[in-house]
Design brief:
Number of helices: 7
CATH class: Mainly Beta
Number of domains: 1
CATH topology: Porin
Shape: globular
Radius of gyration: 24 Å
Strand content: 35-45%
Distance between the termini: 37 Å
CATH architecture: Beta Barrel
Structural class: mainly beta
CATH superfamily: Capsule assembly protein Wzi
Length: 592
């Protein structure tokens, strides 16, 4: 009851006349990739550095568009034709905020993006970047990127259909590959005080064989909650999956530096392809989020309600078992090149709801966890990002620490099971070899056995899926990526993953399955990365996309995966070739 009462109070305050912090850009949006490219390409040397950290998703559309307009003002003349096209597309998609000024040269870059002195920007105001066209049937597509668009002095509305439809063939498998997601996305603002985002998505899919194997093992699927079996003879799918999902947020600013958001959705922390702190791999969840943007700091509190296990194992009509997440993250800008971050989280299971002790937004959670008897799963982490403008390169990294014992980690080093840590290191480079739009990424992720696990139900999971890296624990991963846009509408993308991991069994808990209680571990000492039934996986994903109309993509993809295990019966080869259409939604890849 406590979380519901607390969240209900926040809703009341929204209606009490607070000023809105705007609808956020969904975590899966392609817009983040573009903003990141501008940051790496141009840095912050000639503009005021915003307190809002784009690596702390979701981020307000208003803040991101203001940042894009600032880059346009300072570097627009030297941007390539492709970047100009992408900038124009970003303006189209987020056109309710085109009235915002660029970032001020100093002093007020940390304020809410549309907080202008004692007043606010009018979301529906026009400027020279606002595009209109002759509406279809008199009211559809008045602007290129929005099916329905309304702009009034005290109200704006954007409504768009969502479609992600793919079909392809799998070699050496009895089923075809099929993905059918459709729905609706809506966002609106009222009185420049209340802002909302809403989406509803229905998905049916015939999975690649390795994803189907993953689903059968965990009785769950990434990005889904309650799932049902699905078949479609027309697409040659006999063992598919059907699920309904959605997101929704209400947002408000308490002051020009402090904002709040309540909703149902997901988050991502970090600059990498993966996150070891918090990712959107699992299902959406109900949450309360607080953002504090002041000077060089962006501080976020997150309180969320999670589900302790897969929905398929709970009888129909019985409430799903709950647990709770309290987390905070502090991003600190140090100069023009370096950004550091500090993260802390605790997952707790209580029969009577959330523990009020964790509502303190600034305290060290480990202190609270000890004060209530140490029954919970506490983790701490750190991030770093360093920009080299002359090389058009950005280095980044993460470190997550679940638990450790100094002597065992640094002196005896006997592979103690509770030395639980993970790290990430990577870099991004844009315009490689002097070729415009040839962008590269390389990244390494490593996680010790048993990290994120717990002795009871408080593992770092939601609906049996990891809250951080898709592989869970007990793995090392290297990935290489390339993005190339030779033409404004053409996007070529490739990702190559090399994975080493060890798998356990029901009788041999070796720390890679986050749902297995770590009290049932096979041994206390001698634990090393890759233990258990070791396997190596090479995963290659190649995709070409062409934008037919704003936010409407025609795509072709090749997936080639080879799993080579110590036990031959666990070997698995996958080759999928598919074509599809994607409209107004980001892409979800099965990259594990």
């Amino acid at each position: 009851m406590i979380p519901r009462i607390f969240l209900a109070c926040c809703i009341f305050f929204f209606w009490a006349g607070l000023s809105g912090q705007g609808s956020p850009l969904p975590v899966d949006s392609d817009g983040y990739e573009f903003i990141r490219r501008l940051r790496i390409r141009y840095g912050f040397s000639d503009i005021s550095r915003p307190a809002t950290d784009p690596g702390l998703r979701p981020v307000n559309r208003a803040s991101l568009l203001q940042l894009a307009k600032t880059y346009d003002e300072h570097y627009g003349a030297e941007m390539s034709a492709v970047d100009r096209y992408r900038l124009r597309a970003f303006y189209r998609t987020n056109n309710e905020w085109l009235s915002l000024p660029i970032l001020p040269p100093s002093g007020d870059a940390d304020r809410a993006a549309f907080w202008l002195g004692d007043d606010f920007a009018v979301a529906s105001s026009r400027d020279s970047s606002y595009e209109t066209q002759t509406p279809l049937l008199g009211f559809l597509y008045p602007t290129p990127a929005h099916l329905i668009e309304v702009n009034e002095p005290d109200f704006y509305l954007r409504v768009n259909p969502v479609l992600d439809l793919r079909y392809g063939k799998q070699q050496n498998d009895r089923e075809d590959y099929f993905f059918n997601r459709r729905g609706i996305r809506l966002r609106a603002g009222i009185d420049d005080r209340l802002f909302l985002h809403f989406e509803l998505l229905e998905t049916q899919t015939g999975l690649p064989n390795y994803v189907r194997q993953f689903r059968n093992r965990f009785e769950a699927l990434p990005g889904a909650g309650f799932i049902k079996r699905y078949s479609l003879d027309l697409a040659n799918v006999a063992d598919g999956t059907d699920f309904l999902n959605g997101q929704g947020y209400l947002s408000a600013d308490l002051t020009k530096h402090v904002g709040a958001r309540i909703g149902y959705g997901s988050h991502f922390i970090g600059d990498g392809e993966r996150s070891l702190l918090l990712s959107d791999f699992s299902n959406n969840y109900p949450f309360l989020e607080l953002n504090w943007r002041i000077w060089k700091f962006h501080y976020r509190n997150l309180f969320a309600e999670l589900t302790a296990g897969p929905a398929m194992l709970t009888p129909t009509g019985v409430p799903l078992p709950k647990k709770y997440l309290a987390a905070h993250y502090l991003s600190i800008h140090l100069g023009e090149r370096l950004t550091l971050g500090l993260f802390e989280a605790v997952v707790l299971s209580r029969q009577n709801g959330f523990d009020l002790a964790y509502l303190n937004p600034i305290i060290f959670y480990r202190t609270i966890e000890q004060s209530v008897g140490s029954p919970d799963n506490a983790l701490i982490g750190a991030t770093a990002r360093y920009h080299l403008p002359t090389l058009r390169t950005e280095f980044y990294g993460q470190f997550m620490l679940d638990e450790f014992k100094f002597d065992e980690l640094f002196v005896q080093r006997r592979g103690w099971w509770a030395n639980k840590w993970a790290y990430q290191i990577g870099f991004r480079h844009v315009d490689a070899l002097g070729i415009d739009q040839l962008d590269l990424v390389a990244e390494r992720n490593t996680a010790r056995p048993f990290i994120y696990t717990h002795r009871a139900t408080s593992s770092y999971t939601h609906f049996a899926m990891p809250l951080a890296h898709p592989l869970g624990a007990n793995f090392s991963e290297n990935l290489l990526g390339v993005d190339y846009r030779p033409l404004p509408r053409l996007h070529l993308r490739g990702r190559l993953y090399f994975i080493e991991q060890g798998e356990g069994t029901e009788d041999n808990i070796i720390g890679e399955n986050l749902n297995a209680p770590n009290v049932d571990r096979a041994m206390d000492f001698g634990n090393e990365i890759g233990q258990g039934i070791n396997y190596s996986t090479r995963l290659l994903m190649l995709r070409a996309g062409y934008e037919l109309y704003p936010n409407l993509w025609l795509e072709g993809e090749i997936i080639n995966r080879n799993k080579d295990a110590e036990l031959d019966i666990r070997d698995l080869e996958t080759t999928v070739i598919n074509l599809g259409v994607r409209w107004n939604i980001g892409r979800r890849d099965w990259a594990f």
